Amino acid sequence: MIDVADVQPAGIDRFPTRRQLPPERLDSLSREILALKKKLNAVILAHNYQVPEIQDVADYVGDSLGLSQHAAKTSAEVIVFCGVHFMAETAKILNPNKVVILPDKDAGCSLESSCPAERLKALQDTNPNFYTIAYINCSAEVKALSDVICTSGNAVKIVNGAPKDKDLLFVPDENLGSWVMEQTGRPMTLWRGFCYVHVEWTHTSLLRIRQQHPGAPLVAHPECTKAVRMLADEVCSTEKMVQFCKTNPSQVFIIATEAGMLHRLEKECPGKAFIPAPTDHCRCNECKFMKMNTLEKLYNCMEDLQPRIELSPDIIRRARLPIDRMLEISARA
Ligand code: 13P
Ligand code: SF4
């Protein structure tokens, strides 16, 4: 069995921005959250990038695809969404009659903010033959303007299933879009948005860590740049990272995605070690938006049933169609 201390220097906090709760406070807050969950008939859904203490009280932890699939089928009356705003919005679109809350309503996403609906509409108006594929990291208004939604976990399948006689427009992540073009061979017009976290990794920073750990596979998210993806042994969504690391015989992996992922990987792959890929200039592999959610805010939002996601019936109706199309294509063999 690998000793984690052999590959990770001691004393480095993986989550430098996190305010650590004293253990007794952590325990009592976690217990109160679980009691409130029962009382409210609520389900807690958490993205893989949430802090460990939130992942540990969640009913389901996963990637954007798994989270939307869970949101689509839950029978709970209240959905507590621990992720960023667009993810909670997607849960609301799928459950218009349920209460959907999130710990911090300001938990945004650089991809979402790069693509305002009016600018997308203006581009769509230049070509009536566009078929718009929107990465789920976008607002409900952008979803409402799109033909189909995709996540990093199903983007290749969605693009392969797109009508052959259409001009594909992929928004808002240029890096994911270019990776999907490489995988499918389908040309697409790409929106020039990016994830501010995933573009921090560079070819040089990854080459350096690969040289230090020559046998360790590099696993990277498709939001990384091509210069990083070309060094990776596996490029995949956060959920597929779990499957890859479970089944790959290596005992050590280099992970190029947000730091929250390491907790999930360590839980699912006991005995294996995960090295966070270093960036060039900073320790910035944390998404400041994902990390706005804390265990205390989670408790408060359940206690107050606020902040709530509210969307107009028209947006819900129009945004639902491309999400349902994605879920239907995803379920195909
Ligand atoms: P996944 O769907 O792969 O979890 O990615 C979501 C995300 O926001 C990546 O930055
Ligand atoms: Fe958005 Fe990047 Fe944060 Fe994911 S990691 S939520 S893409 S800003």
Could you explain the architecture of this structure?
By secondary structure, this protein is α/β, with parallel strands linked by helices. Helix content is 42%, strand content 14%. It is built from 16 helices and twelve strands. Strand 5, helix 8 and strand 6 form a beta-alpha-beta unit. Helix 2 packs parallel to helix 15, helix 4 packs parallel to helix 5 and helix 5 crosses helix 16. The longest helix is centred in the last third of the chain and has 19 residues. The radius of gyration is 20 Å and the shape is globular. The protein starts with a helix and ends with a helix. About 2% of the residues have low confidence. Bound molecules: 1,3-dihydroxyacetonephosphate (13P) and iron/sulfur cluster. 1,3-dihydroxyacetonephosphate (13P) binds next to loops.
Task: Spell out the key features of this protein.
binds iron/sulfur cluster, 16 helices, 333 residues, single chain, 4-stranded parallel beta sheet
Task: Explain briefly what this protein structure is.
With 333 residues, this protein is of the alpha/beta class. The chain has helices spanning 4-7, 23-40, 52-55, 64-73, 85-94, 110-113, 117-124, 140-144, 155-160, 174-184, 203-212, 226-229, 238-247, 261-268, 295-304, 313-331; strands at residues 42-47, 60-62, 78-82, 99-101, 130-135, 148-150, 167-171, 188-190, 218-220, 234-235, 252-256, 273-276. Bound molecules: 1,3-dihydroxyacetonephosphate and iron/sulfur cluster (SF4).
